[in-house]
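Section 5.1 Outputs to date
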Amino acid sequence: MNVIITGSSGMVGKGVLLESIEDSRIHKILLINRSKTDVKSSKITEILLSNFKEIDSLKDQFKDYNACFHCMGISSSGVSEEKYFDLTFNVSKAIAQSMFSANPNMVFNYVSGSGTDSTEKGNSMWARVKGKTENMILNMGFKDAYAFRPGGILPLKGIKSKTNLYNYIYIITKPLFPLLKLMKSITTTTDLGKAMINSCFHTQSLKHLEGKNINELARINIQQEYK
């Protein structure tokens, strides 16, 4: 299987990238980023794109890929609704439409968030925008599509957040990671990556995957090995 990953220079995207490199089922990885990643692998081809609304210019390169893991996004903190909508919904729409045009038989996975509002009518701005984005992707017509809604995400394998405050929080809470992993709502960058990959091989009836669902999906292969 060949996969496309957006946002692999961020914490979530890098976690998905590392699992994709380690998984023998994945042969080629196309990275589309605004800034260059520091990860090296013979599987990787990387394209730098400053304006993702122009992604359609690259669509001829997407036809041989089986899945897209859309991991890029921004925090809503201190951002106007207009800007957040543009960088979340409009950018995601451009990416999804380009991927669908190139290969509708893709599996398209979108990293959303716990608390997202599928009705698009709630009081929380970010939740409405994320909900509208999820609905657009899930209804695009892909072979399969999922909205991943992690709550807390613990970074593993040396991964760091681009947000200094988050890194500080992760440092002081690291001794608690073993306990936090026991919480159903908490996932890790490793399990999120494994779940993304497994969704391409094990069709799920649920299309909105919360932390508990993500962790269960990440462990499918392990469970099957011991049956």
